[in-house]
Write a structure and sequence with these properties.
2 domains; extended; mainly alpha; 55% helix; 10 helices
Length: 197
């Protein structure tokens, strides 16, 4: 009696999609792309900025994640610097075309920085809880600089109002609308540059 050795079936590998900006942190996190120079900046600074923006734009154009990155940067998060082929100013114009606004993240709250004697905002409690789901309510209260009962009260209120009363859910634009608005803003800006030249 002989036993046949089973043949190993080939393992299919799923290609990993990687954003090009991850390999170019020195470009995308350059201080000039984070905060573009003013019009009166020295010529060498403006040329450096233009070269960085050109390099970042080329990377974004070929990125397989461009559309979802654009959507996140325009609709969900108020990111700084250059993202998804757009500057922060361009994203403001895109949001204006779409009729949406995105509140900047309260990084102090997310990081647990506690302010002095100030009232605790309901949304602040909910955001902090969502950002730190495994943290005790006592620790959240310490971060917020309030009592445990205040945190519990806000969490109860959220449970009682979810889906009924409270802030109306903002309807998010579809991806196609965001991409179309971005093209409009970028095309108009290219036209302005051509007219100025």
């Amino acid at each position: 009696m002989s036993f046949a050795t089973p043949q190993a079936e080939p393992i299919e590998t799923v290609p990993t999609v990687r954003a090009g900006c991850l390999d170019q942190a020195e470009t995308f996190q350059h201080p000039l792309l984070e905060e573009p120079p003013a019009g009166g900046a020295p010529a060498v600074t403006r040329r450096t900025y233009a070269a960085l923006e050109h390099q970042a734009a080329a990377t974004c154009r070929t990125c397989p994640l461009l559309a979802p990155c654009l959507y996140e940067a325009v609709v969900r998060h108020d990111v700084a610097g250059y993202a998804a082929g757009t500057t922060a100013r361009q994203r403001v114009k895109i949001r204006a075309l779409l009729g949406i606004s995105v509140e900047p993240e309260n990084l102090d709250t997310l990081a647990g920085v506690v302010g002095g004697n100030r009232p605790v905002d309901h949304d602040e409690v909910i955001r902090l809880r969502a950002a730190n789901p495994g943290e005790s309510l006592e620790r959240l209260a310490q971060r917020l600089g309030c009592s445990l009962s205040t945190v519990k009260r806000h969490l109860r209120r959220e449970r009682g109002t979810t889906g009924t009363v409270g802030k109306p859910q903002r309807s998010l634009p579809p991806m196609e609308d965001v991409v179309c608005a971005a093209r409009t803003v970028l095309h108009a800006q290219r036209g302005e540059r051509s007219a100025a030249a």
